[in-house]
Design goal:
Elements lengths: L1 H18 L9 H17 L9 E7 L4 H14 L16 E6 L10 H10 L30 H7 L3 E9 L3 H4 L18 H5 L5 H7 L5 E5 L30 H8 L3 E4 L2 H8 L6 E5 L19 H12 L6 E7 L2 H6 L3 H21 L5 E7 L2 E2 L1 E3 L26 E6 L4 E2 L2 E2 L4 H4 L8 E4 L5 E2 L3 E6 L9 E3 L2 H10 L31 H10 L5
Parallel strand pairs: 1-7, 1-8, 2-17, 3-4, 3-7, 4-6, 5-6, 11-14
Antiparallel strand pairs: 2-16, 8-16, 9-15, 10-11, 12-13
Helix pairs in contact: 3-13, 4-15, 8-9, 10-11, 11-13
The protein binds zinc ion.
């Protein structure tokens, strides 16, 4: 049996080689030695930038564990006509990396609320709570007061910088809310989701806090229903009553927000966003593009809704008008949702879109004055295994059969809705099924929604003080590095010098050469399934 497997493997490899799927230059030791020499050269020339960061951008891939990053790298490489794993993502090209320990104060495996408190406020909190220390208890309104902790966005604002949040989820969702809200229950999006007791005790919903806790210059994402009085028809889906506003207090928070600032503009579609971003009279910009979360990018109506990359560009353009710089939080928020559904195609295509936004921001800013961090709040029980052959689809089958003589996919989940038995046993799967964008990968344990995972996540860093991102750190370190690099609270004394103004020296250093396998790439184009 084993001999047969080896024979099959060899046959498979030979087939691969004969089809040119393995770049032929990789058979030559000189190829690897040359590549390593180039990487060494780049590494030796790395110089820490020790002047103050004028701008700080934090990219947060919700649920983007390391296995997600690796699988998305292969997907993006293949979408680009390359074999995949050798082709660096935009985030891969950042010069410094650390590991972040993501646990909440009360749980090993965290959620997006407690972790947002950690990486944005610099203090770990409890599961389900946002912007409060662990002395606050989940869902107990009366434990909020006195336990609030403020975020790096707040500190940057106090220092005179412009600030913004961009997300593909609703803007009141746990991760962006970590930048501006203090709440013991992450689901209190509007007053309609709050129990009467909490309202009586004076707790405020997240949407209201977004408008009143601080002055946020740019807010882009989904989440219209939480801003308008109950029954207000949605501008995009006026016939669909389920998309109406939900606020019980009858307040129109968009109107209230606009009244606060001259030059404030509200938009709800892509065209208006692009116009507003280019209008220098716009000082404050709120764009809410869906009633709830924005759609997955693969389902997006490109004429109506902006991509994460477009929102990021719009935000950078508006925020850059402040000569004192800006803080921007950008979330790829639906990577997490794809994983919860056990649909890896959704999670990975969202990760690729997230990486495109990182590439765009890297083009629009300078490494000399902008600290950019890329990290995740937590991982997922998403695995990438089974010895798949190089050049095959990342969504394809593992090489060989399982012990039940059925095929299995390279991508699998530890738990979730993908657990399904067929006549008491695991379903077989073929290549055509597994590469379908709707395919739900198999899971070992049945759950309505797949869970997060507890292992560390990566932090990629580029720009002033990026070299502080090293080693294995508590997740709270992320907020402190951003504050220290930008010389904002609580690091305003003993501040490092500002960078002398002048033309910026944007020496963008790629860590890896990407001049691989043009021929193999062309062949692959014919073989890799088309991705939309
Ligand atoms: Zn999640």
């Amino acid at each position: 049996m084993q001999g047969a497997c080896v024979l099959l493997l060899l046959l498979g490899l030979q087939l691969q080689l004969s089809l040119g799927l393995v770049p032929v230059e990789e058979e030559d030791p000189a190829f690897w030695n040359r590549q390593a020499a180039q990487a060494l050269d780049v590494a030796k020339k790395l110089q820490p930038i020790q002047t103050a960061a004028k701008n700080v951008i934090l990219f947060l891939g919700d649920g983007m564990g390391v296995s997600t990053v690796t699988a998305a790298r292969i997907l993006k490489g293949q979408m680009d006509g390359k074999p995949g794993p050798e082709t660096p993502l935009a985030m891969d090209q950042f010069p410094y990396v650390a590991l972040s320990k993501t646990y909440n104060v009360d749980r090993y495996v965290p959620d997006s609320a407690g972790t947002a408190t950690a990486y944005l406020c610099g203090v770990k909190g409890n599961y389900g709570t946002i912007g409060v220390s662990a002395a606050a208890r989940y869902n107990q309104c009366n434990t909020t007061r006195g336990n609030e902790v403020t975020s790096v966005m707040n500190w940057a604002k106090k220092a005179g910088k412009s600030v913004g949040v961009v997300t593909t989820t609703r803007v009141q969702h746990a991760s962006p809310a970590g930048a501006y809200a203090h709440v013991v229950n992450r689901d209190w999006y509007s007053d309609a989701q709050m129990p009467d007791q909490a309202k009586k005790e004076g707790c405020q919903d997240i949407a209201t806090q977004m408008v009143y806790n601080m002055d946020i210059d740019v807010i882009l994402g989904g989440g219209r229903i939480y801003m308008f009085p109950e029954g207000t028809p949605d501008p995009e889906y006026p016939e669909n009553g389920r998309q109406n506003g939900v606020r019980k207090d009858r307040r129109n928070l968009v109107q209230e927000w606009q009244a606060k600032h001259q030059g404030a503009q509200y938009v709800w579609n892509r065209t208006a966003l692009l116009q507003a971003a280019n209008d220098s009279s716009v000082t404050h910009l709120m764009g809410l593009f869906e009633p709830g979360d924005m759609t997955y990018d693969i389902h997006r109506d490109h004429t109506k809704d902006p991509s994460l990359e477009e929102m990021t560009e719009a935000a950078v353009r508006v925020l850059s008008r402040n000569p004192r710089g800006f803080f921007l939080f950008v979330e790829g928020g639906r990577i997490d949702h794809g994983h919860h559904e056990n649909i890896a195609y959704r999670a990975l295509t969202e990760t690729v879109m997230f990486d495109n936004a990182i590439a765009k921001a890297s083009q629009l800013t300078s490494e000399a004055d902008t600290l950019t961090l890329v990290t995740a709040d937590h991982s997922h029980v998403f695995t990438f295994g089974g010895y798949p052959l190089r050049g095959t689809s990342i969504f394809g089958l593992a090489d060989g059969k399982a012990s039940d003589r059925k095929s299995y996919t390279t991508l699998l989940y530890g738990n979730g809705p993908g657990y399904r038995l067929n006549m008491g046993s695991r379903a077989d799967v073929n290549e055509k099924q597994s590469v379908d964008p709707e395919y739900q990968q198999q899971a070992a344990v049945p759950l309505g929604s797949e869970t997060h995972a507890g292992e560390d996540v990566a932090v990629f860093a580029r720009g002033p003080w990026a070299h502080l991102m090293h080693g294995v750190q508590e997740q709270t370190f992320v907020a402190h590095v951003m504050a220290f690099a930008a010389c904002v609270e609580p690091y305003t004394t003993d501040c490092h010098p500002q960078r002398p103004s002048g033309p910026s020296d944007t020496a963008h250093q790629a860590a890896c050469p990407s001049s691989l396998a043009l021929l193999a790439g062309a062949l692959l184009l014919l073989l890799v399934p088309t991705l939309h």
